[in-house]
Structure to design on (395 residues):
């Protein structure tokens, strides 16, 4: 199963100084902005003065839903942080991004980047909560976290920033993604971070996403050098699109029992088709949906019998068919194919099926299911099957 949850709160924090109106942002809050931005401003003199921004994103994870809690310790499980690009400006050919677990609580606030005057109540580069000079600042001295994994010192120059602040995070747990002339969407494997949360190694205060610095792999300090890296803008939780930050939590929930069912003949992939059985079309948000999928030959051989051959339930080859969920209107993939996490299961009398949590999807949008078949485990020669039936989730 791939269980998608959407961000509960997020904000961009901008490094700044009162010395210039353009970067007078050290107390600026952007908690309800529609955009998250990872930006770097280099001073015109190309001195050591650089001004970065970092994105904070928090997900409220219900571990009780995840494989009855066992997913938190299973080595085969995976978690992916997804941020979707709204716009990218003057970005380089290659760059790196790093994600750490935040080590202190923070208040999202109600500000926007374009507010005049600026809103200073809530999380900012300098403060994790509160208002302006009277707010509660991020810790600025090094300290010991669980298992002696220290969180970053945020004093001047410690990681390339010009000013104190910029968040605090645990350095022993991090994830990275490198980009080279490719889509700027983020899909980063953050399994190690989320497993630390689920085991109470660290408290879940969310992720901080930033350019690479000197304290994490890769060691290139892209925040502190004098190179220009442009601006990466991602849709935030408050977006009016279907692309808010999303955390994919993946685990293998497959069950396989064929009983006395017959196997579906897939030797001619063009001669079969698939459909949903008992599709209600409309499902309530908050529950688990089980979709039963049947396959049959398009042109069965005529035989004499007392029942229709179309009612016979068959099963697909084990481990060779997986599913994907797509938005009907945009054709965007909501739940991607995965040979481990979206394999079809089989019930001994009801045939193939898969389970889906309805809160993985937006309400009042139409979705469709697509299947992918490969002839052998190591094959990359795929056949795809669009299922005609659609469904949606309602409040």
């Amino acid at each position: 199963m791939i269980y998608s949850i959407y961000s509960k709160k997020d904000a961009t924090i901008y490094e700044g100084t009162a010395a210039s109106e353009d970067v007078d942002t050290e107390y600026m809050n952007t908690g309800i902005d529609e955009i998250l931005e990872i930006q770097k401003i280099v001073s015109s003199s190309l001195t050591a003065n650089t001004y970065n921004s970092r994105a904070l994103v928090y997900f409220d994870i219900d571990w009780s839903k995840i494989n009855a809690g066992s997913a938190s310790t299973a080595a085969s499980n995976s978690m992916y942080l997804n941020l979707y690009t709204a716009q990218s400006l003057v970005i380089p050919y290659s760059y790196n991004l790093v994600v750490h677990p935040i080590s202190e609580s923070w208040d999202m606030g109600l500000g926007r980047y374009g507010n005049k005057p600026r809103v200073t109540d809530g999380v900012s580069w300098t403060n994790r909560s509160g208002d302006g000079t009277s707010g509660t600042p991020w810790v600025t001295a090094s300290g010991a976290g669980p298992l002696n994994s220290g969180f970053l010192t945020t004093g001047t120059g410690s990681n390339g920033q010009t000013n104190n602040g910029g968040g605090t995070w645990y350095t022993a747990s991090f994830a990275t993604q490198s980009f080279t002339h490719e889509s700027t969407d983020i899909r980063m494997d953050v399994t190690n971070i989320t497993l630390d949360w689920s085991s109470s190694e660290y408290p879940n205060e969310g992720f901080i996403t930033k350019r690479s610095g000197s304290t994490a792999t890769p060691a290139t300090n892209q925040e502190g050098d004098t190179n220009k890296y442009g601006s990466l803008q991602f849709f935030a939780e408050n977006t009016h699109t279907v692309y808010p930050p999303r955390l994919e939590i993946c685990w293998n929930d497959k069950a396989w029992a064929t009983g006395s069912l017959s196997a579906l003949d897939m030797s001619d992939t063009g001669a079969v088709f698939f459909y949903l059985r008992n599709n209600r079309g409309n499902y309530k948000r908050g529950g688990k949906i089980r979709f039963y999928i049947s396959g049959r030959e398009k042109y069965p051989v005529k035989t004499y019998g007392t029942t229709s051959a179309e009612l016979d339930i068959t099963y697909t080859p084990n481990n060779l068919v997986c599913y994907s969920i797509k938005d009907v209107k945009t054709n965007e993939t909501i739940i991607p194919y995965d040979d481990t996490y979206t394999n079809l299961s089989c019930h001994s009398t009801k045939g193939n099926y898969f389970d889906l949590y309805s809160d993985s999807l937006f309400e009042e949008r139409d979705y469709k299911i697509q299947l992918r078949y490969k002839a052998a485990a190591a094959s990359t020669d795929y056949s795809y099957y669009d299922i005609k039936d659609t469904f949606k989730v309602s409040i």
